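Entry:
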Amino acid sequence: MATQTEPSAKPRFPLSRDRVLRAAIGLADERGIESVTMRRLAQELGVEAMSLYYYVAKKDDILNAIVDLVVSEIELPSPGADWKAAIRKTAISAHDVLVQHPWAASLMLSATGASPARWRYMDAILGCLRGADFSADMTDDAYHALDSHITGFTLWEVQFQIDPEALPDMAATFLRELPVDNYPHLVEHVHQHLKERSPDDEGAFAFGLDLILDGLESIRDSA
């Protein structure tokens, strides 16, 4: 006699490398990168931990692969587009993607092994700069200036994320503890954080990015 499936039983989906990696990204996004262990991932997928080794060699394989998947979400420069507009769009896309996955910027700095998406991303930016008549030396410096801004700003932002609704109380507490007469410019800076932003204000990341791009253009044109 055939047995019937329990109505409440969860549907089972076949494992695949992509499914394992997507589950790892979801786990990292929700609970932090330290939560991505073979045991926890197996629990999320409803399988035994040993089943995962058919699709991933070890934890480092997972970490390298999920970084590469995140980088693949970044919009690359469009061939033939104005170089400043194209790189600006890519840099903002990279920042947005890395903020959506707060663990990724830090992991990018330590990941090892093959990373095709990362290679494509780097090559596209370097190619855009070379196509805009930057010399090989200037392209090298320009790439590192851009990468430092994208990665460094993102690391700072995800480290110090503050609930906007909690900001006024935090600012008030800070100002009560601060000898305000001794630090007038710091007080002004705190109040700047409390001001309502204009809809046209793209924020500090875009401001710094535009400074870099304008500076690169000036250096190239004067070379």
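The CA atoms of residues 81 and 128 lie 9 Å apart.
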